[in-house]
Amino acid sequence: MAKQFDVVVIGGGPGGYIAAIRAAQLGFTVACIDDWKNKSGGPAPGGTCTNVGCIPSKALLQSSENFDHAGHAFADHGVTIKGLSLDLAKMLSRKDAVVKQNNDGILYLFKKNKVAFFHGRGSFVSKTNSGYEIAVSGPADETITGQHVIVATGSAARQLPGADFDEQFILSNDGALSLQAVPKRLGVIGAGVIGLEMGSVWRRLGSDVTILEALPTFLGAVDEQIAKEAAKAFAAQGLKIQLGVNIVGVKTEKKGVTLNYADAAGQTQSLAVDTLIVSIGRVPNTNGLNAEAVGLKLDERGFVAVDDECRTAAANVWAIGDVVRGPMLAHKAEEEGVAVAERIAGQHGHVNFNTIPWVIYTSPEIAWVGQNEQQLKAEGRAYRSGSFPFMANGRARALGDTTGMVKFIADAKTDEILGVHIIGPSASELIAEAVVAMEFRASSEDIARICHAHPSLSEAVKEAALAVDKRALNF
Ligand code: FAD
Ligand code: NAI
């Protein structure tokens, strides 16, 4: 007889594995099915995020930044390095080790929480009286049933028509994280999050990087003032970013790739590169799920259609993370996983889309939460804003990293914080204070009145909050 579970989770990325753990904490019997394989064919739970996304990219961003600092920034601190060299193989194997620690950590957490792990591909078979039958095809084929099913099958890199990923010359995020040599000339299509992060990694390691972006605006989702500052910083680092391009041809040659495109002025251009990263967004992954068998509906863009609470069209089948609408972020997937497990238990799980932070882990880092100025202007909402530059922050000066600013936007009447936008050192960490503040519907004055440690970068957050009322103390 098929093994029966209260909850079966299909997909062991940050959405799925967290949903499985939370459901187990709530007292359910839980199975999680994930098909990701490590190099030796063994299980590697953690999904895109752990294997070819958040974790390896941050490992390489850190390593490449260390290399960059050793070559440039350290000299300003009186630290001179002679004979600096790059051991790329070691850098990549360190990255792989970091990934493995995370894979192993998830397997340990499954054991600790008594989540049954099935390594293989899950697909719906049918709905029966004892729940949904799901076939697992993997090292050991079997069928299990779940009263509730959580679909957390994630996403995959979008292909550019006419430029299929070969992971040798034309790379997705996967190949971009495991190049065995630093390309002399690296082309990137798409100046989004992956393009900027991976472009930064390889530029720091020595590549001449050109990023081609279709939209005429740089980082359109980012507050305009912050995006402008970012464009300045990236240009100064030597990242060549061209906006408003129209790619008309991508041709793989013997030793590289030739790109033909129209530039913003409509002029025909050609660019020869050794390697090309295509990072033009991601598509939901429902391959092989056999969703139709149980009546799951996909929306017009191929996402599993869900309501605000992640319910699908099939009773007791839920879907979370990258495979459903909303931002494709690991922490959004995790929050949905927790909320769904709690809803199954009859609780009131909740995910607040207005307070999901965004971070781009470039240098300078870019982080924001809530609305930006251009959105508020379009809405016609009255607001006040205040900003504070890291140049005027003592800790940033001591660090030798004074690029950027913190910017607060608050409602003109109530002073409730509507958005916080940061570009600069440790923006990814500093944004957490803003998220907490917004979650508690704080005003900018609340933050301005809170004691922040000196000297710390967080004082820039307090000063930006003070600046909303035009009373920054150090600027
Ligand atoms: P996934 O992580 O994609 O996991 C889905 C899992 O399900 C995979 O293991 C997949 O193989 C498995 N699966 C699919 N179908 C089946 C099936 N039928 N049976 C069994 N298993 C199946 N987000 C951030 O928040 N911060 C970052 O810094 C960040 N960096 C990123 C960097 C890169 C290069 C990329 C590509 C993405 C990054 N992201 C980042 C996005 C983040 O990785 C995703 O938002 C997140 O992984 C989504 O989680 P998920 O659980 O929905 O899906
Ligand atoms: P993205 O949506 O961030 O950026 C894609 C870019 O490609 C856009 O600017 C788009 O205008 C451009 N584009 C699309 N088609 C094009 C074309 N034909 N020619 C030229 N440009 C084109 O997507 P990306 O960078 O692929 O990342 C996917 C997702 O992964 C992100 O949206 C994000 O949710 C997640 N991610 C998150 C990270 C983080 O949180 N730090 C890091 C990396 C990825």
Give structural notes:
There is one protein chain. With 475 residues, the chain is of the alpha/beta class. Helices cover 32% and strands 25% of the residues. It has helices at 14-25, 47-52, 54-71, 73-76, 88-112, 173-176, 193-204, 224-237, 330-344, 373-379, 394-399, 427-439, 444-448, 458-468; strands at residues 3-10, 30-34, 115-119, 121-128, 131-137, 142-151, 155-157, 170-171, 185-189, 208-212, 240-242, 246-252, 257-262, 268-273, 275-278, 282-284, 317-319, 358-360, 365-370, 383-389, 405-411, 417-424. Strands 1, 2, 3, 4, 5, 6 and 17 form a seven-stranded mixed β-sheet that branches. Strands 8-15-9-10-11 form a five-stranded parallel β-sheet. Strands 18-19-22-21-20 form a five-stranded antiparallel β-sheet, with helices on both faces.
